[in-house]
Amino acid sequence: MLAVVLFPGDLFYPVAVETVGVFLRVGVPHGTAETLWIRLDDDGFTKCRIERHGLNYRDFLSSRATQLRDWCTRRMKGPEERGFVEYHKPVIDDLVPQAYLGAPSLDDEAFKREVRRRARGYMANHWEMASEVER
Amino acid sequence: MSGIAKLSDKFHLIVANSRDAGDYVEGPIPFVTSAETNNGVVRYVTPLEGDKLFHGPCVVISGLGFASLQTGEILPKGNGGDSCTVVYSKTKMTVADYLSFAAVFNVLHKWRFSYGRKCKLSRLENLVLPWPLPKFNRAWSGELGLFETLVESFGKTLNQRELADLTERVIVFDETPKRPEEEGELFQSS
């Protein structure tokens, strides 16, 4: 098994399906070799109404595609990016990038957004609970 | 000094135990599921024998890897393949810290879980988080100020419970008749 790529959840939008691409060399046992694990959380497409549009997705994905090609054809390692591109030996049955990639560094803006969402969710629930008690 | 910590080193992770939402009759206890709306609460139910009731503050991580802050008494979904996992800190943590934890978990780890790969104890234990957890600032937005005010309004009750023994915070529901005063304690919401 050369590489496993986790694609974005919207790859086949509007069908919601989790998709992975598995790159294998036919007829060669895996042994103890490393596998390239990639998480593509953004493929350069944006959703608009019920369609996805990607104006420059080829440029957007070229660095990841080059790294994948170099690894699969010449076993040449590229730079690792924690949480997105890493090389590890598969050691457990869970053969998906979710099990092997580390935690990416915490993005401040994403953290701020999520804290606000969770606070809103918590308060909305309390409002609902207070209404239940009143009823 | 900031670093990282394994989830199981810093938190108690407890798997929920309950029936399906449809098995319950209406009642006072929030039933927490994988839903992301309304903080995961889909119904208010009366627990059945053998259910595990949890007392917040805590974070509930759903089968789809969605973490939500919970306070008061809750019954998280605990049947089928998508049982919730309840997270209690091993050290003193305020309600605001639990909110930060839920946000950090969702940003860093929610992507790992889906219908095809459910969130379970063995997949949670070894995940890492930045440690100490980042703090939020109420000046970031109006709702965070409101959140802190809400927590402060019943903060004494919540914060007093923080260091309570874990056995006091996880109750296996028993349907055997209780004296009225015991029953009152069981359903008392914070």
CATH superfamily grouping of chain B? DNA methylase specificity domains
Overall body shape of chain A: elongated
Largest interface by residue count? A-B, 33 and 45 residues
Average of pLDDT of chain B: 81
The major β-sheet of chain B equals: 5 strands, mixed
For the sheet with most strands of chain A, the description reads: 4 strands, mixed
Describe this structure in words.
The complex is a heterodimer of chains A (135) and B (190). Chain A has helices at residues 57-74, 97-100, 108-134, and strands at residues 3-6, 20-23, 35-39, 46-48, 51-53, 85-88. With 135 residues, chain A is of the alpha+beta class. Chain A has 2 domains: 3-104, no CATH class; 105-135. Chain A has a 4-stranded mixed sheet with strand order 2-1-3-6. Chain A has a two-stranded antiparallel sheet with strand order 4-5. In chain A, β4 (46-48) and β5 (51-53) form a beta hairpin. Chain A is elongated, with a radius of gyration of 20 Å. The model of chain A has no long low-confidence stretch (mean pLDDT 86). With 190 residues, chain B is of the alpha+beta class. Chain B has one domain: Alpha-Beta Complex (Adenine-n6-DNA-methyltransferase TaqI, Chain A, domain 2). Helices cover 28% and strands 26% of the residues of chain B. Chain B has helices at residues 7-10, 95-109, 121-124, 142-153, 155-160, 166-169, 180-187; strands spanning 3-6, 11-15, 26-32, 41-45, 52-55, 58-61, 67-70, 73-76, 85-89, 128-131, 170-172. In chain B, the strands form 3 sheets. Chain B has a 5-stranded mixed sheet with strand order 4-3-8-5-11. In chain B, strands 2-9-6-7 form a 4-stranded antiparallel sheet. Chain B has a two-stranded antiparallel sheet with strand order 1-10. In chain B, a hairpin with a 5-residue loop joins β6 (58-61) and β7 (67-70). At the A-B interface, α3 of A face β7, α2, β10 and α4 of B.
